[in-house]
Amino acid sequence: MIERIDSFKNDMKAWRHDLHRHPELAFEERRTADFVAERLESFGIATDRGLAGTGVVGTLKAGTSKRVLGLRADMDALPILEANKFSHRSVHDGRMHACGHDGHTAMLLGAAKYLAETKPFDGTVHFIFQPAEESAGGARIMIEQGLFERFPVDAVYGLHNMPGLPVGQFAMRVGPIMASFDSFDIVVKGTGTHAALPQLGSDQIVAAAAIVGALQTVVSRVLDPTEPALVSITRIKGGDSYNVIPDEVLLSGCARCFSDDIQDKMKKAIVRIAKEVAAANGATAEVRFIEHYPPTVSTKEGVAASSRAAADVVGAHNVNIEAKALLTAEDFGYMLKERPGSYVLMGNGPGDGGCLLHNPRYDFNDEALTIGAKYWARLVERELGT
Ligand SMILES: [Zn+2]
Ligand SMILES: [Zn+2]
Known about the structure:
386 residues; alpha/beta; Aminopeptidase; Alpha-Beta Plaits; 8-stranded mixed β-sheet; 4-stranded antiparallel β-sheet; 10 helices; binds zinc ion
């Protein structure tokens, strides 16, 4: 039956190209949300608007079962100037669908159309179209505004395209598949002085350099060596001449890991090391630590369900259920903290020519549209089977 989705390929492609041409940044997805809601309604699916501002939830019921699934797609684009020249290139310079959320939205719409037309299930499906996946935490805000109270689900599923993984392949794993993501700013402060008279003040450059070095011990000494984690310093700003030791130096960076417990330990260690190493150098450190995303953790049952559905579409030999976890992050982690389920990666084909996530030459692969839509449809058919 799901072969019927092949006949939607041109629709999905047209939707995807339309969305690609009109990318919108986090919480500004008004046109996109209208686009999604109009299509869902045209399939006869009831829609609810406004969670996290631009979120859209479509609800489709069939039969009498109380079982409920949530399927999630993200809708936001990135602040990138698109380098592609094709006809569906972004019409908004400086905004681009460089992460494939246009494809994710089109695939979930394709699955919704199929499920609404054929109703091959018994239960309820909530199609969750979320804003602001890219660093602004649209999923968290939808949850805080009552997503799962208003639309309770037994399990929730997410999907992301993956350049470098061939089209027609899926990758997933039980446990964490993506890392947590926290960022921090460390402002090292003291009494700047003449570079030739360091004894009259404190040297914030030396203190900052010592902090950068000492932060490497968070992963190597503070944490259990068998636990993967990462601390990267990504910005150093301070001073503007050859002979002045500045009052202030700014360090920024990020911390990533795969469990809430390690996330908490890293935060405490970064704050402690920054303050104490600054003090050891006669300076002080103010630390602003921003917790962004939790790790994205799939349950055993969720991965079992996803792997069965994916295998139905592409064959079991094309489904890797022991994928390597990635240190990138995903705000779907918030949804998986609330409900069981899974997050899967779907092949987008070669990353040649810059077709990598967040690259100005990226484009979602249209050949993957029917595969993703069939995966969603099959997941519903299997999990809410009649
Ligand atoms: Zn992204
Ligand atoms: Zn993305």
